[in-house]
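Researcher: Good morning. I'm working through a list of sequences from a screen, and I'd like to move beyond sequence-only analysis. For each chain I'm collecting a predicted structure so we can compare shapes side by side. This is the next one on the list. No need for commentary yet; just the structure.
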Amino acid sequence: MALDRLDIALLTALREHPRAGALELSRRLQVARATVQARLQRLEASGVVTGYGPDVDLEAAGVQLTAFVTLEIAQGALDEVAAELEALPTILEAHMTTGSADVVCKVGASSHADLQETLLELNRSTSVVRSTSVVVLGTVVPPRVLPLLARSAEEREARAPAYRND
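Model: Good morning. Structure tokens for this chain:
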């Protein structure tokens, strides 16, 4: 789905004011409430907006360590590995990748011992050939999507033909 400037402004307003209703958003964006409601419905129906849950600071919630773990897996074992990863509550995300690793996981742990137990559990899997882990020391850029979406919308608008009234 191609997003325009109003879509980006709406997503930005939702990010900055997640509890705002359609009326408040329409005031902030200076558009009709029906426009906001229609745009939100379109963004939800197309799968762009996937939820309105709270953002959670894991460190504040007691999860002291984050690590990234790369997995090299046995040929044809992706389904088994996916099921094993889903069963581990410390696996926050897992992505199939290109390169030397087949899967990259983001892991959360309450302690070094908790992280070690997760790594040992991954290495017990008959589907995992090798794992490599790195511990996160700090966050340089937090998770974000709006700058990329805004750039895409601007590029699309710049390519659109300009209509003149002469």
